[in-house]
Amino acid sequence: MNAAQVPWAAWLLFLAPVSAILIGMFVVRPLKPEWTHLPILASCAVVTVCALLLLQRVLMGGSFDLNFYRWAGVGSWGVDFGLRIDGPGVAVLSMVAVVGSLIHLYAASYMEGDPGFSRFMLVFHLFFLAMIGLLTANNYVQLYLFWELVGAASYLLIGFWYHKESARKAALKAFLTNRVGDFGFLLAILLIIDSFKITHFHLLYFLVARATAAGHAPQFLPAIGLLLIWAACAKSAQFPLYFWLPDAMEGPTPTSALMHAATMVTAGVFLLVRSWPLIAAVPGLPDLVAGIGAFTAVSSAIVAGTRKDLKRILAYSTVSHLGLMMLALGLGRVSVAIFHLIVHGFFKAALFLCAGNVGHAIHQPTANVDEVGGWRKALPWTYVFFVAASLSLAGIFPFGGFFSKDAIVDAAMERGGLFALSGLLISAGSAFYIFRMLFLTFHGERPEQKGLSAHPHESGSGLLAPVGLLALGAVVIGAARPVVETLVAGGWTALPVGIPGYAQTMNLPGSTEIPGVALKALLIGMGMAALGAAAAYALTMVDAGWDWRWRKSSPALERVFDSDFGWKTLVDWFARGVSSLADFVGRVLDKKWWDGAIEGSGRVVQAAGSLFSDAARGRLNEALWWMAAGAALLLALGAAR
Amino acid sequence: MSLLTSLWAVPALGAAACALSGRAARWTALVFSLAALGLSMAALRPILVSHGAGLLVEGGASGLFGISYSLSADGLSLALVALTAFLNLICAFASWELEVPAGYWAAFQALAAAVNGVFLARDLFLFYVFWEASLIPMFFIIGLWGSDNRRKAALKFFLFTFTGSIFMLLALLAVVIAHQRATGVWTWSLPELTGTDLGAGAPWILLALMAGFGVKVPMVPLHTWLPDAHTEAPAAGSVMLAGVMLKMGVYGIIRVALPLVPGAAAAWMPILALLAGVNAVYGALCAMAQTDLKRLIAYSSIAHLGFCLIGVFSGTAQGLAGAALLMINHGVTTGALFLLVGFLYERAHRRGLSDFGALATRAPRMAFFFGFSILASIGLPGLNGFVGEFMCLSGAAQSPILFGGLPFYALIGAIGVTLAAAYALPAFQSVFWAAEGPNSVSPKVFDLGGRESAILWTLCALMLWIGLAPQPWLATLAPSLQGLVR
CA of A139, closest CA in chain B: separation in Å? Predict the structure, then answer.
């Protein structure tokens, strides 16, 4: 296969967004900035169609991996850029295209009238483009390029309302934390180059599989695996680097929806999926991934149950669900992880946009549970969509989330021990925090409610239709199970790569099976969810003052939750430590001590009255001119010879 | 006049013409800068066509003490000559509306002449003469047209580099004399001196050469002239200082120091590599502590040149090519940043991070260009900065220099990459995003005009181009460095 045979759909994945951004920036923005969304929405439509066409193609066995050009290199060594259209890639890409496009549609209405509308739409689309590139990259350097672009775009979007100090801080925190993660990624790439000389996925898979089969794993492979996991922990908001994500809700709500559902946080999970043949070759690393996932999922589900800001509850919920994906991955269930990633994309986008509608109802970017309550009558459509997406999130049969989460809990139960326990806790916890949010927002008046806004109003169709479609997706997406299974199963081996014995050497680590509904797991999972929901009902509806009361009675406990069990405090100390170190190096060591010593010695010389006196300085200029004249003479002589 | 000679002689003539043309000096400068750029392109063309192969040589007959007027040029030197011409043209446009005397324009032409001479010289005496000559115009650019503390900064700049180059001269003399003793022939020609057996003196010669070049790079701890010089220099002066003059140091290490004392260089490479890593991290930490925008960018230059040296001392083809590309990249990116700070300073006469605020609203174009350049500067992949850093670090990772079996200073470099965001983005935020304080001078800042925007579009387009398709650049630069690969 060569570049001429690449389907048009694959080219358009890039051509459409790039031209939409260029047209939007250089044509529409100067003339009619309020129309910037038009080329961008058109591009979204093109991308969605193309993604689905590619999905169909890959299902029919049309995966490909192709290099287009030498990006950078010296001699025979170099990094090529190309395109990899394979099962895991298109599975996630299709979700990103559909969910992302709907969020674009929502954003066009939501941001209408904002003075930065045009800028917002352009950066928003850049964010989307970066994710498309990330999912279709065929080597680590190319993936890293888009990985960083995702980070930069998210920085601009989180800090979009830069007049708010909280937004500026959150943007910086997000970027710097991700940069700390990228440190691991960059180092992993460097070690990969050092060990293998190449960065291509399929060649790496092959080399690692062959070396492992021969019994001598490359020396740096454990380090590479660890560093890649570190990178994924930053991007996909896992412990210990998860803390930027809850603050990232400072961006306009469509940003949060896009970031949490489709374009940013899924990148880390995807990186690990892409790297799975490398990571799985190192004993212990899969368990580490599962452990990180389980720990993050449980602890952030607990914190989510104590938050008051609607978007913040959802943010912790995202952290928790990303943990679930990591858990699935670590247990070797690659397909299940991707399946949950896709399902999560639908319900989380719907939930965030519902939260956006709730905020919109009181003309705020976000809302606090203290300010809302009993709004199901005022916001009937939003309520319906929220309920549908919540049921999916809580994993209630037969809503979409049930199928993916059930599969994860199933895998965790099979593994037993702490993993099984965490699976149960997450089931109950998810149901608790989402039903708590549902009840607090849409049911029952709260005693602590400040009565801030008396007249919430339902949003217009521009804000409802995309949410409705996303909620519908969240309900029915469970049906995509066999498709995802087929796609991921072909992910490593179904590529025509032209290495003899490639498919035989490649043993896909873990299992690509996504188990169907098993009665035992269904009963256990649903039972835990029901328990969580019942607890939420009891503590919000039956005892309406509970949430408000425990904060009053035990402020220490609230502080524990506020600081994420103290972790955020530690991180702040670390950040302050680095900045004090910089202050010391820059102001004291460099300026005061070192430069001071040099200038001091200069002054000693000056005091001795030699070089620095005015007369000497005059002669210095003179000397310079003589030097110049001498040089000119010399050159003239030289040139004349 | 032959081609290579014209590359330094045309700007030299330009300097004289500018000095004589009084009020029309800027037009003269423009014409000569354009001519210089055209000539450098003409010289570069055969090398581009042959993918970096080829060496142009001129002159040769030696005179007194073996000193000869001989020039040579390959991909690396011509790329740097072209960069000089390009930045000089950019500087001419950037200074277009300044109220400055003819001497200002003449100084920039003279600077370009001297710097090009350094990049082209094949004879080490010639090299030294051009090296010293380049100090003079920059001394006046800082000392006459700089800001408040210009005199002190100019003197500091001069004394540092002058002291350094005395060591360099001594080292060169030692090599020439050693060569004469061994062969009975006086020569200053670099190719002939390469391979001279220096015996036990080699490490000392390396040390002296590194003192001369290290001041220019600058290598920590020889760097303290740089923040002052940059801060006080006029914007265009900072552009040339960072864009071109710092590269003289790296160029000297690549062209002179490493070939003259290969054995000692190989023995000391781990130490030098470690120092390069220190440069990258130390520069970044210092930049984090700065409150003056220009000082901050100056320290970031130290960090960037640290990456450059990491590449050079890795002794690998990737690292060296990356270092060469990083020199070009740094010229473009840091040039853009210094120009932007200059435009800010022209408007508000302040440079402090806390003197501004909310400029993204008042001057959106300025914010766009600054943000773009900052992202390029911190190594966002897809823009130019990343390519050079990545190549340097991948060179470091594959380098035979190891600490305890690990490519340790690739790790130090990666820490530097991480820290870059920690100084660059807060600076961007406090100028362009943060709320205006009571003493904010933001109201004085109006957005960029057409001329200024055009300059920055050019630079930003270049950043994107090199970032997405660096291979032709690398192919031009890499063959010149093959000899240093170990």
Answer: 14
